[in-house]
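Problem 3 from the worked examples.
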Amino acid sequence: MFKTNVGGIDRILRIVVGLALLAGFFLLPEASYRMFLLIGIVPLLTGLFSTCPLYSLVGINTCPTKG
């Protein structure tokens, strides 16, 4: 469906940051900025699916080349 353009360290960092932001959402129920922590869904999904629409628009590819 989408071309893979996120790889290696970039993918791991996206997953870790996404999980950390979502953990903050659940661990800080009374924080006034709690809803902003839901932005963690974006890096989590782009890391899990190894594709980033913004990278596609800009022409960035962090996957190692095969060959």
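Problem 4, a separate protein:
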Amino acid sequence: MEHAAEVMVRLAGLKPSGGVDTYHVVHDRDVPVPVVVALLERLVPIAIDLVAAKPERPSALEALSDFYPGMTAYLAHRRRFDDTRVRARLGPSAVSAPVGLDYLWSGLAPRDRPRPVPLQPQIPTTVS
């Protein structure tokens, strides 16, 4: 977040073009899928196993998770936001720090509760 805030402050200090100026302020590194999986496992009491290919028949838990399309959709596609205009106006930015599990957890964890202890796998789930 610090990197995005710095970029936004720098953009706000530039002279407006007189038209509509739209900039995509994005992190310059992808968050690895295993980090997202570890975060999901902290948030809900399930164990997720990453596999290379989708099985022919989903498990009961996989079918249930597909019932809520917002959950599994994030694991099924890749997005790349174009920050060309930001780089054109500000030049190449300094490399920002990678986004890790502790960083993501710090934005989601309630401040008054301790960090949960990871559960032992009980129901294997396949995500491709």
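Solution to problem 4. The longest strand covers residues 49-50. The CA atoms of residues 75 and 91 lie 32 Å apart.
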